[in-house]
Amino acid sequence: MSSGAAGVEAVEPSKVAVTAAREPDLIDEKQVHDLKDSGRVSDSDEALDDVLVGPNGEQYPTKEELQTLRRTHGHVPFLLYSIAFVELCERFAYYGTIQVFNNYINWPLPPGSKTGSAGTDGQAGALGYGTQAATALVLFNSFWSYVMPMFGGYVADTYWGRYKTINFAIVVATLGHIIILVSSIPGVIEKSSTALGVFCLGLIFFGIGVGFFKTNISPLIAEQYESMHPRPTVFVEPSGERVIHDPIMTISRIYMRYYFFINVGALGGQISMVYAEKYVGFWLSFLLPTIMFMFTPLVMLWARNKYIRKPPTGDVLYKAVRLIGFAMKGHWTLNIKNLVARIGSDELWENAKPSKVANKPKFMTFDDAWVDEIRRGLKACGVFVFLPIYWLVYNQQTGALIIQASTMKLGGVPNDIVNNLDPITLLIFIPILDKLVYPAIARRGWRFTPIKKITAGFGMGSLSMIIAAIIQHYIYVKSPCGDHATDGDCIAELGPPDLSVWIQTPAYVIIAISEIFCNIVALEYAFTKAPKNMKSFVTGLYWFTNAFSSALGQAYVPLSKDPLFTWLYTSLACISFVGMVAFWFTFRGLDKEEDALNALPESTYQGRKGSIVDVEALNARQAEQDRIRKAQGF
Known about the structure:
Order of helices and strands: HEHEEHEHHHHEEHHHHHHHHHHHHHHHHH
CATH architecture of the largest domain: Up-down Bundle
Membrane topology: Multi-pass membrane protein
Main location: membrane
Shape: globular
Radius of gyration: 26 Å
InterPro entries: MFS_trans_sf (IPR036259), POT_fam (IPR000109), PTR2_symporter_CS (IPR018456)
Structural class: mainly alpha
Distance between the termini: 28 Å
Subcellular location: Membrane
Keywords: Membrane, Transmembrane, Transmembrane helix, Transport
CATH superfamily of the largest domain: MFS general substrate transporter like domains
Strand order of the largest sheet: 1-2-3
CATH topology of the largest domain: Growth Hormone, Chain: A
Helix content: 55-70%
Strand content: under 5%
Number of domains: 2
CATH class of the largest domain: Mainly Alpha
């Protein structure tokens, strides 16, 4: 199946496993002749003896070619955009809904309003529970929506598979959308305590659906390409230049475009819903996302026989935990530095491989390659440990920054419209980075690795909070309400300070660029470094870092009031800067391992649901993969 195919045929799991098991061979004389005729190699090519050709005639790079040829991305199949469209609809529904949460909880119903609408000059509101309650519930929603991916990933990998789990998530999320909608209809919204109870119930279903969906949709889109193109291949450009089509770079491009679709959905949802709440009412701002969400099951149903759907793999999480315990037996220590060093020890993991264990325990039904995959997955999870620091900054977009906006001159613009600068910036800069910046960096031979990108993301997040702190300082200085700048009654009586809400623009633009470097790259890292039969679960662990950050964010709730907002932003800026420095010095060594980690031989272990090849065939395949890795310098 060529990379240029417009679609992807459905492939049974057994066929995927057979295709993946076929390894390239050293080329014979006829293949050398064919390569010369096609112009892929020349008579003067001194590396012909080491050329590796795959089962479908594709040429794999040698050690010399890996070091010298320029790397580029391959073709992105059209069918992958259907998955991106599903995510677009889900993100429209999600962001359109949560965009109005703050106003819905914080501000009371405007005088005479039964829907929460306030017209051009008023402030939309409904429940009137204040800034701390709004901050706490927004953080709870974020926590709940991001803790669920870990469970959704486990269910997908173990029992249902990604496709079935996504469809379950759609059903549950739809129920959540409907319950939240009910809390906002006239007659219910006017009874704030009743509306709050219904709203909180809706948040429970909403978060479960969001979490189960989120952890599976991104691996689903990436594995469509990975299943067809698991290895780097040599390709001749129309100009005659020989390059390497790198699957990791292609998956990176897929995630960039996938994230572009996310922000098309987010932007559409956020902009339209804030005007819906302001001029019509909260019932409309919750209804429209629900309608948009209904497109997701239609697309998934249409493509059910077109997607590659890998089966669940049963007890792999249990086996992974047992393997880690087996490898670390006698090596546990309370000294964190020594513990990290031991987990990273080559000798420790070599001794845990089945081929090195004389009396294998019953759980050890996997091969040596799977042990390497688990070790690589642990390294990825180590990278995720620092991400809650970044999420603390990122989450201010739907919390403190919206409150900050409500205290300045809006000029008829809803206070929760300004944070749409984030998706607008992403829609501008994602194509620029995808088409111009990243290719230019690659042409110069620079490796802008995931570790470097995430480090840059931390730094830009810190800068955005510095800007927010400066803005907040001048709000307190210029506000007629002084240190009580968020007091709605005071603002109504004396007016806001002489500051336009659009001075928040630099903070949103910078945090959006940091999002490209952190969020997109971390998603890519979770997929490419996870064991092949645990990708949903490891992606769920990545999203769990946001949930953990939301829990940490509860500690900042006491700072989410006057006159302490300046300290809130300042402390977040300092924490993010320290996180940047600590992250780089902790993980800079992984840059040197990037190629080796991506080139690990693929395990044949499929868990309880699958089967493992006979020992003789397994040993032969393992030896062949070792030979290829040796030829490529790994």
